[in-house]
Amino acid sequence: MSGIPKCLNDDGIPFPSHLMLNCRMDIPYILDPVCASDGKTYSDVNDMARASCQKNIPLMPVQMGKCRFKEGLCKHASCRCLLMSGIPKCLNDDGIPFPSHLMLNCRMDIPYILDPVCASDGKTYANMEMLTATSCDENKPLAVRHKGRCHDSDETSKNVDPCKFVGCGRAECRLRNGVPKCIDGSGREHCNMLMIMIGAPVCASDGTTYGNMGSLAAASCRKGTRLTVVRKGECNKR
C-alpha cells in the first residue's frame, strides 16, 4: 500500500490501525544486515519491512550490509554520501543512490584548495575532494597512499606529462600539441588550474625559472606554448 507492507485479515482487508495488528510479522532469526533508505541498518530485510509498516513509510534496501555514511571518502563529499563497496555515491532526498544514467550520483563540490594527496592508483590529486569525486566518477575504490604528491624519478624530464602537476576541478587535463589544457564536459578549453605547489624550481625552455612543475604547467597553458625543463634549479645559476 503506497510502498508500505501491511498485514491483511482473513477477508484480505488490512487490519484497522488502532488494533495494532497490521504489522504483526514474524521475523526469522537470520542476521543479514541491510542498509535502508532511511539511513538505518536493519538486521535483515524482514526487520526492514516491519519497520516500514510500523513507521508507515516506504523503505527500500540501498545496499546489503551496514550503512556506511560519512565513512572513508564520504567524509570529503559535499552531498549526502554512502560508501558502496568502497566507492562514494551521492543519495537523493529519499536516501537512495541516483540512477547511474542521470549522472547525478557523483555531483560533488571540489574546492580550489591545494592539499595534494598521492592515491592508490599512483596519481596525484589536488585535494581529498578531487580524489573522492574521481573515485565516484570512475566507479573504483581509491585510498590515500600518503599526503603530498606521488614521487616520479623523472619528474623534470622532457617527456614527463605536465598534467600530473595540475588539477582541473571537474574538467580533465589533456595535452594539446604538448600544451596542457583543462577540457570540460562540453569540450571547451580553459586554464583555470589547481597547481600542485610542491617541488623544486626548474629552468624551462623559455628561459624562465618556475617555482615548480605545477607553475611551469600552468604557464604553458596560459601562453599556449609547450614548455619543457632544461634543467633543475634556477636558469641564471649553474
* Distance N to C terminus: 81 Å
The shape, in one word, is: elongated
Order of helices and strands: EEHEEEEEHEEEEEEEEHE
List the strand order in the largest sheet: 2-1-3
Compute the gyration radius: what is it? 26 Å
Residue fraction in strands? 15-25%
CATH fold field value of the domain at 162-232 = Wheat Germ Agglutinin (Isolectin 2), domain 1
Helix content: 10-25%
The secondary structure category is alpha+beta
Number of strands: 16
CATH class of the domain at 162-232: Alpha Beta
Provide a short characterization of the protein structure.
This protein has 238 residues and is an alpha+beta fold. 13% of the residues lie in helices and 21% in strands.
Defining traits:
single chain; 238 residues; alpha+beta; Wheat Germ Agglutinin (Isolectin 2), domain 1; 3-stranded antiparallel sheet
Give the arrangement of secondary structure elements.
Elements (H helix, E strand, L loop, with lengths): L33 E3 L4 E2 L2 H11 L5 E4 L16 E4 L2 E4 L26 E3 L4 E2 L2 H10 L6 E4 L18 E2 L4 E5 L2 E5 L5 E2 L3 E2 L6 E3 L4 E2 L2 H11 L5 E4 L6
Antiparallel strand pairs: 1-2, 1-3, 4-5, 6-7, 6-8, 9-13, 10-11, 11-12, 14-15, 14-16
Write structural notes for this entry.
Residues 18-22 have low confidence and may be disordered. The protein starts with 33 loop residues before the first strand and ends in a 6-residue tail after the last strand. It has helices at 45-55, 128-137, 213-223, and strands spanning 34-36, 41-42, 61-64, 81-84, 87-90, 117-119, 124-125, 144-147, 166-167, 172-176, 179-183, 189-190, 194-195, 202-204, 209-210, 229-232. Among the domains are: 113-157, Wheat Germ Agglutinin (Isolectin 2), domain 1, CATH 3.30.60; 162-232, Wheat Germ Agglutinin (Isolectin 2), domain 1 (2-Layer Sandwich), CATH 3.30.60. The chain has 3 helices and 16 strands. The protein has a 3-stranded antiparallel beta sheet. Helix content is 13%, strand content 21%. By secondary structure, it is of the alpha+beta class. Strand 11 (179-183) and strand 12 (189-190) form a beta hairpin. It holds the Pfam family Kazal_2. Keywords: Disulfide bond, Protease inhibitor, Serine protease inhibitor. Residues 17-69, 100-152, 176-237 form the Kazal-like domain.
